[in-house]
Amino acid sequence: MLDRSPDVITADALDRAGLRHAFFTRQGGVSDGIYHSLNAGLGSADGSDKVHENRRRIADAMGVRTEALVTMHQIHSPDVLTVTEPPAGRPKVDGIVSATPGVALGVLTADCAPVLFADPVNKVVGAAHAGWRGATGGVVEATIAAMVALGADPAAMITVVGPTIAQPSYEVGPEFRERVVADHPAADDLFRPSARPDHHLFDLPAFVVRRAEAAGVGTVVDLGLDTYADEARFFSYRRATHRGEPDYGRLISAIVLEG
Protein backbone atom coordinates (compact mmCIF):
# COMPACT_ATOMS: atom_id res chain seq x y z
CA MET A 1 0.00 0.00 0.00
CA LEU A 2 1.31 3.43 -0.94
CA ASP A 3 1.89 5.67 2.05
CA ARG A 4 2.21 9.07 0.42
CA SER A 5 -0.37 11.76 1.01
CA PRO A 6 -2.74 12.82 -1.77
CA ASP A 7 -1.50 15.55 -4.09
CA VAL A 8 -3.77 18.59 -4.26
CA ILE A 9 -4.16 21.77 -6.26
CA THR A 10 -5.63 24.83 -4.58
CA ALA A 11 -6.90 28.16 -5.84
CA ASP A 12 -5.65 31.40 -4.32
CA ALA A 13 -9.15 32.86 -4.63
CA LEU A 14 -10.50 30.23 -2.20
CA ASP A 15 -7.67 30.58 0.28
CA ARG A 16 -9.84 32.26 2.89
CA ALA A 17 -10.21 31.90 6.63
CA GLY A 18 -12.90 29.39 7.52
CA LEU A 19 -12.65 27.50 4.23
CA ARG A 20 -10.76 24.42 3.15
CA HIS A 21 -10.76 23.19 -0.42
CA ALA A 22 -8.77 20.97 -2.76
CA PHE A 23 -8.74 19.84 -6.36
CA PHE A 24 -7.17 16.42 -5.89
CA THR A 25 -4.94 14.97 -8.59
CA ARG A 26 -4.70 11.25 -9.35
CA GLN A 27 -1.58 10.90 -7.17
CA GLY A 28 -1.36 9.72 -3.57
CA GLY A 29 -3.72 6.74 -3.45
CA VAL A 30 -3.58 2.95 -3.41
CA SER A 31 -5.22 1.95 -6.70
CA ASP A 32 -3.17 0.43 -9.50
CA GLY A 33 -3.35 -0.24 -13.22
CA ILE A 34 -5.54 2.19 -15.15
CA TYR A 35 -6.80 3.58 -11.81
CA HIS A 36 -3.37 4.56 -10.52
CA SER A 37 -3.56 5.84 -7.90
CA LEU A 38 -6.10 8.14 -6.16
CA ASN A 39 -9.27 6.88 -7.83
CA ALA A 40 -12.27 8.20 -5.89
CA GLY A 41 -14.95 6.67 -8.09
CA LEU A 42 -17.33 4.33 -6.28
CA GLY A 43 -18.95 3.71 -9.65
CA SER A 44 -15.75 2.49 -11.26
CA ALA A 45 -14.72 -1.15 -11.61
CA ASP A 46 -11.77 -0.57 -9.28
CA GLY A 47 -11.58 -2.64 -6.09
CA SER A 48 -14.00 -1.18 -3.53
CA ASP A 49 -11.46 -1.59 -0.74
CA LYS A 50 -9.00 0.57 -2.66
CA VAL A 51 -11.57 3.23 -3.49
CA HIS A 52 -12.69 3.42 0.15
CA GLU A 53 -9.08 3.77 1.30
CA ASN A 54 -8.55 6.53 -1.25
CA ARG A 55 -11.65 8.33 -0.04
CA ARG A 56 -10.49 7.94 3.57
CA ARG A 57 -7.26 9.69 2.60
CA ILE A 58 -9.21 12.41 0.82
CA ALA A 59 -11.45 13.01 3.84
CA ASP A 60 -8.41 13.13 6.09
CA ALA A 61 -6.80 15.72 3.83
CA MET A 62 -10.01 17.76 4.05
CA GLY A 63 -9.99 17.52 7.86
CA VAL A 64 -13.31 15.65 8.10
CA ARG A 65 -14.54 12.18 8.99
CA THR A 66 -14.89 9.84 6.03
CA GLU A 67 -18.66 9.76 6.43
CA ALA A 68 -18.72 13.58 6.27
CA LEU A 69 -17.37 13.56 2.70
CA VAL A 70 -20.54 13.98 0.65
CA THR A 71 -20.49 13.03 -3.03
CA MET A 72 -23.24 12.56 -5.59
CA HIS A 73 -24.51 9.95 -8.01
CA GLN A 74 -24.02 12.39 -10.88
CA ILE A 75 -26.55 12.26 -13.72
CA HIS A 76 -25.62 15.27 -15.90
CA SER A 77 -28.59 17.27 -14.63
CA PRO A 78 -29.22 20.78 -13.30
CA ASP A 79 -30.50 19.31 -10.02
CA VAL A 80 -29.04 20.58 -6.74
CA LEU A 81 -29.40 19.32 -3.16
CA THR A 82 -29.06 21.38 0.02
CA VAL A 83 -27.49 19.36 2.82
CA THR A 84 -27.32 20.04 6.55
CA GLU A 85 -25.75 16.68 7.35
CA PRO A 86 -24.31 13.83 5.27
CA PRO A 87 -27.20 12.04 3.50
CA ALA A 88 -27.56 8.29 3.33
CA GLY A 89 -26.08 7.04 0.08
CA ARG A 90 -25.29 9.25 -2.88
CA PRO A 91 -28.13 11.53 -4.00
CA LYS A 92 -28.84 11.65 -7.76
CA VAL A 93 -27.98 15.30 -8.34
CA ASP A 94 -25.16 17.31 -9.89
CA GLY A 95 -24.86 20.10 -7.36
CA ILE A 96 -24.73 20.25 -3.57
CA VAL A 97 -24.68 23.21 -1.22
CA SER A 98 -24.36 23.62 2.52
CA ALA A 99 -23.99 26.11 5.33
CA THR A 100 -23.03 23.41 7.83
CA PRO A 101 -19.43 23.39 9.07
CA GLY A 102 -17.67 20.05 8.82
CA VAL A 103 -19.66 18.72 5.85
CA ALA A 104 -17.28 18.38 2.90
CA LEU A 105 -18.93 18.68 -0.51
CA GLY A 106 -17.25 16.64 -3.23
CA VAL A 107 -17.63 16.37 -6.99
CA LEU A 108 -16.15 13.58 -9.14
CA THR A 109 -14.88 14.25 -12.65
CA ALA A 110 -12.72 12.88 -15.44
CA ASP A 111 -12.99 15.68 -18.06
CA CYS A 112 -16.22 17.40 -16.95
CA ALA A 113 -15.76 20.60 -14.99
CA PRO A 114 -15.55 20.40 -11.19
CA VAL A 115 -16.83 23.75 -9.92
CA LEU A 116 -16.36 24.86 -6.32
CA PHE A 117 -18.30 27.78 -4.87
CA ALA A 118 -17.96 29.76 -1.65
CA ASP A 119 -19.38 32.83 -0.02
CA PRO A 120 -16.81 33.31 2.75
CA VAL A 121 -18.73 36.27 4.18
CA ASN A 122 -22.07 34.54 4.65
CA LYS A 123 -20.53 31.07 5.19
CA VAL A 124 -22.11 29.06 2.40
CA VAL A 125 -20.33 26.62 0.07
CA GLY A 126 -21.25 24.56 -2.97
CA ALA A 127 -19.89 22.09 -5.49
CA ALA A 128 -21.14 21.22 -8.97
CA HIS A 129 -20.46 18.68 -11.69
CA ALA A 130 -20.63 20.62 -14.95
CA GLY A 131 -20.28 18.45 -17.99
CA TRP A 132 -21.65 19.96 -21.17
CA ARG A 133 -25.16 18.69 -20.47
CA GLY A 134 -25.24 20.03 -16.93
CA ALA A 135 -23.53 23.28 -17.86
CA THR A 136 -25.87 24.04 -20.74
CA GLY A 137 -28.82 22.82 -18.67
CA GLY A 138 -28.20 25.29 -15.85
CA VAL A 139 -26.39 23.44 -13.05
CA VAL A 140 -24.12 26.43 -12.37
CA GLU A 141 -27.04 28.83 -12.01
CA ALA A 142 -29.01 26.31 -9.94
CA THR A 143 -26.11 25.85 -7.53
CA ILE A 144 -25.78 29.60 -7.11
CA ALA A 145 -29.54 29.94 -6.52
CA ALA A 146 -29.46 27.21 -3.87
CA MET A 147 -26.63 29.02 -2.11
CA VAL A 148 -28.58 32.28 -2.21
CA ALA A 149 -31.48 30.46 -0.55
CA LEU A 150 -29.09 29.72 2.33
CA GLY A 151 -28.15 33.38 2.65
CA ALA A 152 -25.28 33.74 0.17
CA ASP A 153 -24.75 36.90 -1.85
CA PRO A 154 -23.58 36.32 -5.45
CA ALA A 155 -21.44 39.46 -5.31
CA ALA A 156 -19.54 37.97 -2.36
CA MET A 157 -19.22 34.57 -4.00
CA ILE A 158 -16.10 32.94 -5.40
CA THR A 159 -16.42 30.33 -8.13
CA VAL A 160 -13.46 28.24 -9.30
CA VAL A 161 -13.40 25.86 -12.26
CA GLY A 162 -10.94 23.05 -11.63
CA PRO A 163 -9.18 20.56 -13.92
CA THR A 164 -11.35 20.13 -17.01
CA ILE A 165 -10.92 19.02 -20.59
CA ALA A 166 -9.65 22.13 -22.38
CA GLN A 167 -10.61 23.43 -25.79
CA PRO A 168 -7.58 22.04 -27.71
CA SER A 169 -8.51 18.55 -26.48
CA TYR A 170 -12.30 18.70 -26.86
CA GLU A 171 -13.32 18.00 -30.45
CA VAL A 172 -17.07 17.79 -31.11
CA GLY A 173 -19.24 17.04 -34.10
CA PRO A 174 -21.67 19.35 -35.91
CA GLU A 175 -24.73 18.13 -34.02
CA PHE A 176 -23.12 19.07 -30.69
CA ARG A 177 -22.35 22.60 -31.83
CA GLU A 178 -25.81 23.08 -33.31
CA ARG A 179 -27.47 21.93 -30.10
CA VAL A 180 -25.43 24.17 -27.82
CA VAL A 181 -25.69 27.26 -30.03
CA ALA A 182 -29.43 26.76 -30.50
CA ASP A 183 -29.91 27.07 -26.73
CA HIS A 184 -27.07 29.53 -26.10
CA PRO A 185 -26.43 31.68 -29.21
CA ALA A 186 -23.79 33.75 -27.41
CA ALA A 187 -21.66 30.62 -27.04
CA ASP A 188 -20.97 30.45 -30.76
CA ASP A 189 -17.53 32.03 -30.29
CA LEU A 190 -16.54 29.22 -27.90
CA PHE A 191 -16.25 26.87 -30.88
CA ARG A 192 -13.31 26.97 -33.25
CA PRO A 193 -12.78 24.75 -36.29
CA SER A 194 -10.73 21.59 -35.77
CA ALA A 195 -8.66 19.71 -38.33
CA ARG A 196 -11.60 17.47 -39.29
CA PRO A 197 -14.25 18.87 -41.64
CA ASP A 198 -17.43 20.03 -39.88
CA HIS A 199 -15.88 19.44 -36.46
CA HIS A 200 -15.05 22.02 -33.81
CA LEU A 201 -13.15 22.43 -30.56
CA PHE A 202 -15.40 23.49 -27.67
CA ASP A 203 -14.27 25.59 -24.71
CA LEU A 204 -16.24 24.06 -21.83
CA PRO A 205 -14.37 25.89 -19.01
CA ALA A 206 -15.04 29.26 -20.66
CA PHE A 207 -18.73 28.38 -20.98
CA VAL A 208 -18.90 27.60 -17.25
CA VAL A 209 -17.09 30.83 -16.38
CA ARG A 210 -19.55 32.86 -18.46
CA ARG A 211 -22.54 31.23 -16.77
CA ALA A 212 -21.19 32.10 -13.32
CA GLU A 213 -20.39 35.66 -14.36
CA ALA A 214 -23.84 36.12 -15.89
CA ALA A 215 -25.35 34.96 -12.58
CA GLY A 216 -23.59 37.82 -10.82
CA VAL A 217 -20.76 35.96 -9.08
CA GLY A 218 -18.19 38.46 -7.87
CA THR A 219 -15.03 36.40 -8.46
CA VAL A 220 -14.78 33.69 -11.12
CA VAL A 221 -11.56 31.79 -11.79
CA ASP A 222 -10.62 29.06 -14.26
CA LEU A 223 -7.48 27.18 -13.20
CA GLY A 224 -6.75 26.41 -16.86
CA LEU A 225 -5.77 22.76 -16.29
CA ASP A 226 -6.44 20.22 -19.08
CA THR A 227 -7.36 16.74 -17.84
CA TYR A 228 -6.87 15.15 -21.25
CA ALA A 229 -3.40 16.55 -21.88
CA ASP A 230 -1.89 15.98 -18.41
CA GLU A 231 -1.94 12.21 -17.88
CA ALA A 232 0.51 12.34 -14.98
CA ARG A 233 -1.91 14.32 -12.82
CA PHE A 234 -5.41 13.70 -14.13
CA PHE A 235 -7.80 10.96 -15.19
CA SER A 236 -9.61 11.52 -18.49
CA TYR A 237 -12.67 9.72 -19.81
CA ARG A 238 -11.97 10.85 -23.37
CA ARG A 239 -8.33 9.76 -23.23
CA ALA A 240 -9.37 6.35 -21.92
CA THR A 241 -11.99 6.06 -24.67
CA HIS A 242 -9.51 6.96 -27.40
CA ARG A 243 -7.20 4.24 -26.12
CA GLY A 244 -9.94 1.63 -25.91
CA GLU A 245 -9.45 1.17 -22.17
CA PRO A 246 -12.31 -0.58 -20.35
CA ASP A 247 -12.76 2.03 -17.62
CA TYR A 248 -11.21 5.15 -16.10
CA GLY A 249 -10.49 6.66 -12.70
CA ARG A 250 -12.34 9.59 -11.17
CA LEU A 251 -10.80 12.72 -9.70
CA ILE A 252 -12.39 14.45 -6.73
CA SER A 253 -12.63 18.12 -5.84
CA ALA A 254 -14.01 19.21 -2.47
CA ILE A 255 -14.79 22.17 -0.26
CA VAL A 256 -15.79 22.47 3.40
CA LEU A 257 -16.64 25.16 5.92
CA GLU A 258 -14.34 24.77 8.89
CA GLY A 259 -15.98 24.82 12.29
Spatially, the strands of the biggest sheet line up as: 4-5-8-7-9-13
C-alpha end-to-end distance: 32 Å
Mean pLDDT: 97
Provide a count of the helices: 6
What's the number of domains?
1
Proportion of strand residues? 15-25%
User: Which CATH C-level class is it?
Assistant: Alpha Beta
The CATH H-level superfamily is CNF1/YfiH-like putative cysteine hydrolases
User: How many β-strand stretches?
Assistant: 14
Shape: globular
Cα gyration radius (Å):
17 Å
Q: Please describe the biggest sheet, giving its number of strands, its sense, and whether it closes into a barrel.
A: 6 strands, mixed
Q: What is the CATH architecture term?
A: 4-Layer Sandwich
- Helix/strand structural class: alpha+beta
Could you please say which CATH topology applies here?
CNF1/YfiH-like putative cysteine hydrolases
Q: Note the run of SSEs as H and E.
A: EEHEEEEEEHHEEHEEHEHE
Helix content: 10-25%
* Poorly predicted runs of 5 or more residues: none
Q: How does the SSE layout of this entry go?
A:
Elements: E1 8-9, E2 19-24, H1 48-62, E3 69-70, E4 80-82, E5 95-98, E6 104-109, E7 113-119, E8 124-130, H2 132-137, H3 139-149, E9 158-161, E10 171-172, H4 174-183, E11 191-193, E12 200-202, H5 204-214, E13 219-222, H6 237-243, E14 251-257
Parallel strand pairs: 3-6, 4-5, 9-13
Antiparallel strand pairs: 1-2, 2-14, 5-8, 6-14, 7-8, 7-9, 10-12, 11-12
